[in-house]
C-alpha cells in the first residue's frame, strides 16, 4: 500500500460504514460505543455513565458534516480522517493486524496545507497545527511536540484504530477495538 492509497482510504471512510460498535481506550476516556452516522450511544467503562450524542457542532475548520464525539473533535477525526488527505507526509507504510483485524500502519507528519478538523485536537499534533491554533508567532519549546504520529487505519472501514505520538511531551494516544460493523 502506498501513501496515496492511505490518503484514499482516509478520504473514503464515511462511505465504508453505517454502524460500528467499538471499544475506545485513551489517556482520558475508556468507552464502549455504538455509532451510526450522526449518532453515538456509549457507556463509560470506568463508571458506567451513559453517553448519548447526536451530531457535532461544526468546528472552525469543518469542510463536511462531523460525527458526534464523546470527548473532543479528535473523536470526530478518528471516525472520518479526511484531514490525512492533504498536507500530511505519510511514511513507513506497512500492513499489520490489530485486535484481529487487518490495518495499515504508518507515520504521519503534518506539513504546509495540513487542515485538521479542529486545530485544538488534530490527529497529527505538530508545529503546523499549533500555529493554526495559537497564531504564526507561536514557537515550540524543545522536546514539546512529537516528531510524528504512529497511526493505524482499519482496512475495511477506514477509521483510525490506533494513534500514538512519537516522542514529545504533548500528544495523546488512543485505540479503537472494532467489535461489530453493520
How does this model look, in words?
The protein has a single domain (3-181), classed as outer membrane lipoprotein receptor (LolB), chain A (Clam). A nine-stranded antiparallel sheet has the order 4-3-2-1-9-8-7-6-5. Strand 2 and strand 3 form a beta hairpin. The model has no long low-confidence stretch (mean pLDDT 92). The longest helix is centred in the N-terminal third of the chain and has 14 residues, at 3-16. By secondary structure, the protein is of the alpha+beta class. It has helices spanning 3-16, 73-79, 127-134, and strands spanning 19-26, 30-36, 39-44, 50-54, 88-98, 101-110, 149-154, 160-165, 174-181. The chain is globular and about 40 Å long.
| Cα radius of gyration in angstroms | 15 Å
The H/E string reads HEEEEHEEHEEE
Task: Indicate the CATH architecture.
Answer: Clam
pLDDT averaged residue by residue:
92
* Spatial strand sequence of the major β-sheet: 4-3-2-1-9-8-7-6-5
Largest sheet: 9 strands, antiparallel
Alpha plus pi helix count = 3
CATH class: Mainly Beta
Give start-end ranges of low-pLDDT stretches.
none
Global morphology: globular
* N-to-C span: 25 Å
The helix content is 10-25%
Oligomer: single chain
Total number of β-strand segments?
9
Beta-strand portion reads 35-45%
Category from helices, strands and their pairing: alpha+beta
Characteristic terms for this protein:
182 residues, single chain, 3 helices, outer membrane lipoprotein receptor (LolB), chain A, nine-stranded antiparallel β-sheet, 37% strand, alpha+beta
Topology:
Elements: H1 3-16, E1 19-26, E2 30-36, E3 39-44, E4 50-54, H2 73-79, E5 88-98, E6 101-110, H3 127-134, E7 149-154, E8 160-165, E9 174-181
Antiparallel strand pairs: 1-2, 1-9, 2-3, 3-4, 5-6, 6-7, 7-8, 8-9
Amino acid at each position: 500500500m502506498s501513501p496515496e492509497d492511505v490518503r484514499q482510504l482516509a478520504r473514503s471512510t464515511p462511505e465504508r460504514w453505517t454502524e460500528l460498535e467499538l471499544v475506545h481506550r485513551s489517556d482520558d476516556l475508556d468507552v464502549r460505543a455504538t455509532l451510526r452516522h450522526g449518532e453515538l450511544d456509549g457507556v463509560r467503562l470506568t463508571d458506567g455513565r451513559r453517553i448519548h450524542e447526536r451530531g457535532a457542532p461544526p468546528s472552525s475548520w469543518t469542510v463536511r458534516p462531523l460525527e458526534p464525539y464523546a470527548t473532543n473533535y479528535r473523536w470526530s477525526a478518528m471516525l472520518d480522517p479526511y484531514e490525512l488527505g492533504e498536507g500530511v507526509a505519510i511514511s513507513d507504510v506497512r500492513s499489520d493486524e490489530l485486535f484481529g483485524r487487518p490495518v495499515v500502519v504508518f507515520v504521519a507528519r503534518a506539513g504546509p496545507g495540513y487542515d485538521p478538523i479542529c486545530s485544538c485536537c488534530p490527529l497529527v499534533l505538530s508545529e503546523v497545527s499549533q500555529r493554526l491554533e495559537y497564531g504564526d508567532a507561536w514557537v515550540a519549546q524543545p522536546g514539546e511536540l512529537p516528531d510524528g504520529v504512529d497511526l493505524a487505519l482499519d482496512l475495511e472501514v477506514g477509521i483510525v484504530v490506533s494513534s500514538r505520538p512519537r516522542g514529545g511531551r504533548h500528544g495523546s494516544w488512543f485505540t479503537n477495538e472494532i467489535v461489530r460493523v453493520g
